[in-house]
Amino acid sequence: MRTRKPTIRYLNVIDDARMRVQFISAEDVLYKTNRKISINLIDVREIREFLTSHIELAKHISKGILERDIEFHYPNLEDELILYCSDGLRSILAADALLKMGYHNVRVMEGGFDAWKKAGGKICLA
């Protein structure tokens, strides 16, 4: 599958959201998972991406339905939520939306699933 190059308008929206969002490195997430520290890891990619491969124990809630479904999975606005996508861009927009919904402890895994794989994190294959 061929991906499209992001447009300048899309990147401007990302940059705006980036100012409000907090980040966590893939290495820090890997550290937590290796130490069996409980985390709420949310994969916001499309279902076909998730089914191809994903981080073990990640919950799939794609960016397209996140705002609609998040409260069914995480009703507590104080829960720590760590979001990821393939490269970290879509998850920035998703995290920004959750902040606007009142969630307080939302972070984006910098570099997304690509960074996770580079850090040596375990992945689940379909």
**The CATH architecture:** 3-Layer(aba) Sandwich
Q: What is the class in the CATH system?
A: Alpha Beta
Q: Based on CA inertia axes, which overall geometry fits?
A: globular
Q: Roughly how many Å apart are the termini?
A: 17 Å
Examine the coordinates and then state which fold CATH places here, giving the name of the CATH topology: Oxidized Rhodanese, domain 1
User: What's the story with the biggest beta sheet?
Assistant: 5 strands, parallel
* Percentage beta strand: 15-25%
Q: What is the C-alpha radius of gyration, as a whole number of Å? A: 14 Å
Would you tell me the structural class of the helices and strands? alpha/beta
Which sequence of strands runs across the widest sheet?
1-6-5-2-4
Low-confidence stretches: none
Supply the number of helical segments.
6
Number of strand segments:
7
- Count of structural domains: 1
What is the average per-residue confidence, as pLDDT, rounded to a whole number?
Answer: 96
